[in-house]
Design goal:
Blueprint: E1 2-3, E2 7-10, E3 12-13, H1 23-28, E4 44-47, E5 54-56, E6 110-116, E7 122-128, E8 131-136, E9 140-145, E10 148-154, E11 160-166, E12 169-174, E13 179-184, E14 192-198, H2 201-208, E15 214-218, E16 221-224, E17 232-238, E18 243-248, E19 252-257, E20 262-268, E21 274-279, E22 284-289, E23 293-301, E24 308-318, E25 323-328, E26 334-339, E27 343-350, E28 354-362, E29 368-374, E30 377-382, E31 387-392, E32 398-405, E33 411-418, E34 433-440, E35 444-451, E36 458-459, E37 465-466
Antiparallel strand pairs: 1-2, 2-32, 3-5, 4-5, 4-28, 6-35, 7-8, 8-9, 9-10, 11-12, 12-13, 13-14, 15-16, 17-18, 18-19, 19-20, 21-22, 22-23, 23-24, 25-26, 26-27, 27-28, 29-30, 30-31, 31-32, 33-34, 34-35, 36-37
Region (Disordered): 26-47
WD repeats: 225-266, 267-297, 316-348, 361-391
Pfam families: WD40
């Protein structure tokens, strides 16, 4: 399914006689000298013992929102190039639109629009009410409302790697190791004011006075342990306890009390950069690192019963490839881990044995960079420029629900919210719809509508499907 905004949504074909695009045509749509291979070839999506298998067909994606559109390697329909007459190029017509259906045939799967503001690559997203916050390497945080540029605010330094919102406070993690705290002006909702940083200046000075609060960060260099000295890669919020967790490339995870911005604990979590941290209910915390491990931590109270202390409960995964992303489903019964090899591991809750490994989802050619869970769906964004949508059924089977294509660069971040428009019309049972935001290093954010219900498609004649 394609549209004018520059993207396509590809549904898996459950039948064997799938349409295969010529390799030469795929080459013409690739980027010259790009470290990321073309993703127009057919992928063979494989699963483990608990999953299904499916073949996917890719459709053309528009380049009208990217400077890559001016590349001579990107074939344009109105181009005067002699390649236009090549028998290897499929004509641009409804005959090759693999999803040329009446709109009512699909339960709401579509690309809604693209948000582009040539300020920098998109590294972080956060949704709060009707507002979307985007962070980029331009140090700017843009705020969008109803798909329109609403306002923005700028930090003094540091690429914005992660954004999380807690009530009136907005926390942003930066490449320079700082966590900045912002608030919306009570007089003017379009204005955001910086109200502090983590740690607070008072706490930093107080800790720096005690030699015991210093740790060796590298040879001949010490730093105060309550402050990150490398990029803040991930933020996660425990709303029940009012705690904020920050993971950093300095190999530590720090625990902050949201109420007073006080650092309660610094955990030497891994042997390499911490790329992801997820707070779960019940005092559990997940961390994933470039050292290839996923660790599960349990929060306990100190002897006085005041400050929380985290102890390592178990190591869920040990591998050679870096762990790049983590996600947990809403009921905290399924854990997901994305890796630099393009795999997604998952674990399922077991009453007797805790979390047991459920298998591996294979759907990406390059590293998985971000994960998000909504309802029964898992969204995985990758350096191969695609977003795979996986659906988990009641028995625990995972299948490829669809693939969102259209980005011209790696997909770095994903945010999901419930589609409020679905309440306007009666829906079939199980037809839960989501609004999905995908941020990419192509400097754009694409907005999708994805339904958990998918029609079964079968191949009849070229250019047509039956449902």
């Amino acid at each position: 399914m394609t549209n004018a905004q520059g993207g396509s949504l590809v549904e898996p074909n459950t039948h064997n006689n799938a349409l295969h695009r010529p390799k030469f045509g795929a080459l013409l749509h690739s980027e010259p000298n790009s470290p990321y291979p073309s993703n127009n070839d057919d992928d063979n999506f494989q699963y483990n013992r608990r999953s299904n298998a499916a073949h996917l067909n890719y459709t053309d994606s528009s380049n009208n929102v990217s400077p890559y559109a001016m590349s001579p390697w990107n074939y344009q329909r109105d181009s005067s190039s002699p390649l236009k007459k090549s028998p290897w190029l499929l004509p641009t017509s409804p005959a090759i639109n693999l999803f040329h259906h009446q709109q009512d045939d699909f339960p709401g799967n579509s690309l809604i629009g693209s948000l582009v503001r040539e300020e920098g690559h998109i590294y972080s997203l956060a949704v709060f009410g009707d507002l979307l916050y985007t962070g980029s390497d331009s140090k700017n945080i843009r705020v969008w409302k109803h798909l329109k540029d609403y306002t923005g605010f700028k930090s003094s330094s540091g690429l914005v790697k992660t954004i999380i919102i807690s009530g009136e406070k907005i926390f942003t993690g930066h490449q320079d190791g700082k966590i900045r705290v912002w608030k919306v002006s009570s007089k003017n909702p379009s204005k955001h004011k910086r109200v502090g940083s983590l740690p607070t200046f008072k706490d930093y000075v107080k800790c720096s006075m005690n030699p015991k609060n210093y740790v060796e960060v590298r040879r001949h260099r010490n730093a105060v342990k309550v402050k990150h000295f490398d990029a803040v890669s991930s933020l996660s919020l425990d709303k029940e306890e009012g705690l904020l967790y920050s993971g950093s490339w300095d190999k530590t995870v720090k625990v902050w009390r949201v109420a007073d911005s006080k650092c309660l604990e610094s955990i030497n979590a891994h042997d390499d950069a911490v790329n992801a941290v997820v707070a779960m209910s019940g005092g559990w915390v997940l961390t994933g690192s470039a050292d290839g491990t996923v660790k599960m931590w349990r929060r306990v109270r100190d002897e006085k019963g005041k400050k929380p202390k985290h102890v390592l409960d178990r190591i869920l995964l040990e591998q050679e490839n870096a762990v790049t992303a983590l996600a947990v489903n809403p009921t905290a019964t399924v854990l997901y881990c994305g890796s630099s090899d393009g795999m997604v591991n998952f674990w399922e809750s077991d009453e007797k044995r805790g979390f047991i490994h459920g298998g591996v989802l294979r759907g990406h050619k390059l590293a998985v960079l971000c994960l998000a869970v909504a309802g029964n769906l898992l969204f995985s964004g990758s350096a191969d420029k695609n977003v795979c949508v996986w659906k988990r059924d009641e028995s625990g089977f995972h299948s490829c629900h669809s693939v969102l294509t259209g980005h011209m660069g790696p997909v770095k971040c994903i945010a999901v919210e419930e589609d409020q428009a679905q309440e306007e019309k009666p829906r079939q049972k199980g037809d839960q719809r989501w609004i999905v935001y995908t941020g990419s290093l192509d400097k754009s954010v694409k907005v999708w509508r994805v339904s958990e219900q998918t029609p079964e498609l079968s191949w009849t004649t070229p250019g047509q499907f039956t449902t």
